[in-house]
Amino acid sequence: MERVIKEELVHHLEKIKFLPKEQFGFRQGKSTTTQMIIFQEHIVKEVSAGKTIDVIYMDMEKAFDLLTFQEIISKLKKAKVSGKLLKLLIIFITQRKFLVKINKSKSQTTDSTSGVGQGFVLSAILFIIVFAQISEHLNLFKEILHFIFADDLKLVFSYYINDFDPTILQNILNELFKFCSEKSITINPTKSVHVQYGNPNPNAKYFINNAEIERKDVIRDLGIYIKNDLSMSQHIDMIY
Q1: Helix 2-15 crosses helix 83-94 at what angle (to 10 degrees)?
Q2: How far apart are CA 230 and CA 59, in angstroms?
Q3: Using alpha carbons only, what angle is made at residue 150 by residues 145 and 155, rounded to the nearest 5 degrees?
Q4: For labelling alongside 134, which of 3, 128, 143, 176 has CA 20 to 30 A away?
């Protein structure tokens, strides 16, 4: 039953073009591979042009669990989901229960009060419906690109060293943090990462909620370890 509901919902969302092009998760014709190819092609193009590219890999803390029911239902209505489909989804969202089991001991059954649930067929698609507002917000800022896979978000800021203005990306990060806080989406600054590609710029430092984002030379992006020269040697060494 849940799979049938999901197929109907996905068909509706794709038909009305509700989901942003930047979202590569859980969609037909899109995958981690397609995102990685498009992202790396962009980085190579910008590096070849002599630019510096600062990429912020954002960590969304417990994103699937912390969304309010009100926020989820509101976004379903914005996506023009209505009638019996909406009623079924509201029941699924608001009438879940859970318990905790440790060895042979079980807690009392408790009503779920937030989130889209973990491990359900519908969980991922409900989440990316809500997360679509992140793309809508970020598309207001023409100075950056962004890429999303489910709740994995990266911001891409390219510039020539002589034109570097740290306030451009910093202001966007400030606005994004404020926007997410208002929407019950928590950004974790201590787990977010800054990777710089191309022309090195030691002056590029960025902050989330006054906490400096750690800069690294290697990042695990969508399951693959990539260096800031786009080498995957570390990932290959780990496999072999």
Answers
A1: 120
A2: 21
A3: 20
A4: 3
Does 235 score more than 60 pLDDT?
no
Per-residue pLDDT reduced to its tens digit, 10-26: 889 999 999 999 999 88
Rounded to two decimals, the pTM is 0.87
**In sequence order, what are the residues at sequence separation of 6 or more whose Cβ sits closer than 8 angstroms to the Cβ of residue 29?**
none
Interatomic CA distance for residues 17 and 80, integer angstroms: 11
The owner of tokens 């889209």 is 116
For 164, phi then psi, to 5°, come to -60, 125
Residue 28 phi/psi, 5-degree rounding, is: -65, 135
Q: 145 or 126: which carries more pLDDT confidence?
A: 145
